[in-house]
Each structure stands twice: as C-alpha cells, then as structure tokens.
Amino acid sequence: MNKNTSIKDVLAVVDGTPSSLAAVDQALAYADIHEATLTIVVVTENLALAAAIDPMAYAEAIAASDTLRKEHVAAVRERARGASVQVEVHALFEAPGLLPGLAKAEGQYADIALIPGAGSWQSDGLRRHVIEVLMFAGVPTMVVPATWRPARITHAALGWNASLEAFRAARTVLDLVESGAAIDVIVVDSLDGHRSDRPVPGAQVARHLARHGHNAVVHAIGSAEHGTSGALQIFASEQHADVLVIGGYGRSRALEFVLGGVTRELIAHQRLPIVFVH
C-alpha cells in the first residue's frame, strides 16, 4: 500500500485545559503518521472585557486571564516536547467573540484541522464556533472523540446527498485515504421515489472513487429510527470505518452562521472521527 502524501500541514486547535491535552497527543500522532508539520493553536478567552466598567475588576480579570493563557500554552508546549515532527505552538488570547475569526486565519493554510470533540473544552460554545468558522474557511475539519487512536485511513464512510458540499467531501476523501481504501458511500432516505431509468443515488460518485483505485460501495439506509445524523454514525461505526466524511451544510449571514440540522447534530456528538467539508 502506498503512503498517502496529501497531508503535510496539520492544524490542531485546543484550549490548553487538562481535558484537552489528550487531543494534543492525538494531533502529534496524526502528524507523525503523515510526516507532516503540526501547528497547535491554543485559544484562551480574555474575560477582562466583561469587567471593563469596573477598573479594579478589569485589572484583576486581565491578570487572571493572562495567567491562564500562560499556563495553557506552557502545558501544551510541555506535552509536545520531544515530538518526532516539527511543531509550532501559537497562542490566541482575545475576547471570546474574536477567537474563532483568528483561528480561521490559521486554518486557511492547513491541509486539515483537528478539533477535540465534546467534553474536551472548557467552553463547548467556543468549540462549536471554532469548528463552524474553520469549516466555512474551506479547510477540512476533523472533529475527534477522546477515544480516537490515529492511524492511516484505509476505510472511510462518505455521507452522500449529491449537494455541492457532498461533491467537495468526495474529493476530500481522496486526499485522506490510503491507496486501495474501502469507501462506503452512504445515502440516507434517497431511494424514496427513485425512478428505475435513473442511476441509483451515489452510484456515480462510487464509480468516480473506484476509478481512483478504491473499493467503493453504495449503501442505502433509512433514518426513521435514529435520525439522519444518528443513522450515518451508527452505520459508519458498524462498518468499522476509520472516519466519516460529510459535506457540512450551512451559509453565512454577516457574522452569524446558520447550519443545517444534520451538521449541527454531528458537531455536537461524535461516535467516530467526523470530517466536515464546506
């Protein structure tokens, strides 16, 4: 099996709290697998602005926030000490509302961004916002559960609905997997009303993936029992896929992101690593 050489610039975003340090280990292992450079961005919320009306409280809050920033960055740097790959650790210390935009600037030059899943951030709202911003920046964004053990991807699941985002997700799959990978193309509730004179949904993208040397198979599943997001994750897990890749649906309205319900649910809960592509 040939080694995948598409991933050379990996970004990981963490908040540097103790619960996030396992994600640093995961990012180091993933970068090592691909012999890639790893950039770790440590985001720390500056809570001083909330106390701006009281000069004394402001001074105390800025000092406390700065102490946290230094502790978080030091913890991440210590965790990355002696890594077998090149590692850069950057600190982002700003008002909560500005942090996601700053993280986006880092992500624009990465091949993939790794974000710890639910439970690995002090502020889950900040975690979700960072994921959304990176996704809209165009970088494939992998949200990983704490149990994930990085390895070469030889089996991927692709959520397919023939949307523009799904087409982009299919191209991302080609960058993520190893040669000759197994790829499950999953269509949910897409055979309802299907006409026999038309290709089965997913058949054409499976053919495209097969032409790249992969073993692509279409699976039609229903969502009635678990909903679309649950059905996708359950099926991918039962197939023992290494990763689920999905086109993240949403659109930007000024500074507010409006996500599709399936995307929002997948961001909230991960059974396996999920890559969002927009």
What does this structure look like?
The chain is of the alpha/beta class and 278 residues long. The protein has 2 domains: 9-144, HUPs (Rossmann fold); 155-277, Rossmann fold (3-Layer(aba) Sandwich), CATH 3.40.50.620. The protein has helices at 21-34, 55-80, 99-107, 124-136, 164-176, 203-211, 227-238, 261-268, and strands spanning 9-14, 37-45, 87-94, 112-116, 141-144, 155-159, 182-188, 215-221, 243-247, 250-253, 256-259, 274-277. α3 packs across α4 and α7 (227-238) packs across α8 (261-268). The model is unreliable at 251-259 (pLDDT under 50). Belongs to the universal stress protein A family. It comes from Novosphingobium soli. InterPro entries: Universal_stress_UspA, UspA. Residues 8-96 form the UspA domain.
Quick summary:
With 278 residues, the protein is α/β, with parallel strands linked by helices. It contains 8 helices and 12 strands. It starts with 8 loop residues before the first strand and ends with a strand.
